[in-house]
Amino acid sequence: MIFIVTPYRVFPVRKGGQKFIALFMRYFARHSQLVRITVRDEAESDWAGVRRIPMFSSTVLRYINPIYVFRMASLIRKNKATHIIFEHPYMGWMGLLLKWFTPVKLVIQSHNIEATRWKSLGKWWWPILSVYEGVVHRWADMNFFVQAADRDFAIQRYRVKPEKTAVVTYGIENSGAPTAEEKSAAARQLRKTFKIPESAKILLFTGSFGYKPNLDAVKTILENIEPALRTSGTEYRILICGGGLPEDRQKQVRENPNVIYAGFVDDIDRVFKGADLFLNPVVDGGGIKTKLVEALGWNTPAVSTASGSIGVDPEDAGALLKIVEDENWNGFVCKIVETMGARPNAIPPRYYQRFYWGNITAEAAAVLEKYA
């Protein structure tokens, strides 16, 4: 049995980090009995194969409450758990105590190098977090990193032993590309829903706008990218999806006939599938940009900044991914125009070998079995 600790609400899934955890659990449960310890105020979920134990309060004190260590230790001994996976390093001190005082192996699943992410967001306390994060990763029995660059950082800067690391990336549920008919049907539905003419290309950006890097990307689209596109001679509509866009940005959208704000979309896969091009002008935040992985998985071309494409090997994505150096918005627009005018390419089959959740979690399970 393996326990997985999620220190915040995962359901209902609204953000990329929540989706990462939810899909990791869904597919990992095929390989091992999985039990999740989580917050008490989370919505119930019916994900087969994953039993839920509500334990933590919703206050920030849950990250420092020692009572939870004793409760988790009791569960570990009672259920004879072999591993405990902590999502993010924040509760890592609890994991270290459990590792030292129970037979369980400690695994830290990192979605970013948290210290550098907070540094990029201008938080003064990032050096303190860096020291703590390094300690947690060094003492863990195994560390899962979302991309190779994060793994290399941990080895070089945090002095984590390479044999105690593995890359467990964000994935997609489709194991192959959609058919041309499926993409055409999705595009027709998008055009009908948002009143987009047949002659206009559908350019997509999506994200949670409570997260500053995504909000900054919308600002870039509205103030740098879209104005430059007007001179391209190509008809287009930029569709922005995601909850939490502030009113001042929504006002900018309403005043621009080439931009549509759709808000939170339940079936975002249909949007990815129907779009002609995905825009990824994100330059901060660290980790892997989950929406880029998903867009390419639906065989939708993408133009991305260099920072926004970290974790996606251009050889895996082939000609579908165009990468531009950060802040080079003229070059970004040129790649958009070039891609809109080009004949559509197909994503290489190797992309699905790399990013299909079934393959990702099978490799993760094999790693934990080896280090039991």
Approximate shape: elongated
Radius of gyration: 21 Å
Q: Percentage of helical residues? A: 40-55%
Query: Uncertain spans, ≥5 residues at pLDDT below 50?
Result: none
* Count of individual beta strands: 13
**Element string (H = helix, E = strand):** EHEEHEHEHHEHEHEHEHEHEHEHEHHH
CATH class of the largest domain: Alpha Beta
- Please identify, by name, the CATH architecture of the largest domain: 3-Layer(aba) Sandwich
Structural class computed from helices and strand pairing: alpha/beta
CATH topology of the largest domain: Rossmann fold
Distance between the termini: 11 Å
Strand arrangement within the widest β-sheet reads 3-2-1-4-5-6-7
Report the mean per-residue pLDDT as an integer: 93
Content of β-strand:
15-25%
Question: What's the tally of helices?
Answer: 15
List the helices and strands and how they pair.
Blueprint: E1 2-5, H1 16-28, E2 34-39, E3 50-56, H2 67-79, E4 83-87, H3 92-101, E5 105-110, H4 114-120, H5 126-139, E6 142-145, H6 148-157, E7 165-167, H7 180-194, E8 201-206, H8 212-229, E9 236-241, H9 247-254, E10 259-263, H10 268-274, E11 277-280, H11 290-297, E12 302-305, H12 314-317, E13 321-324, H13 329-340, H14 349-355, H15 357-370
Helix pairs in contact: 1-15, 2-3, 3-5, 4-5, 7-10, 8-13
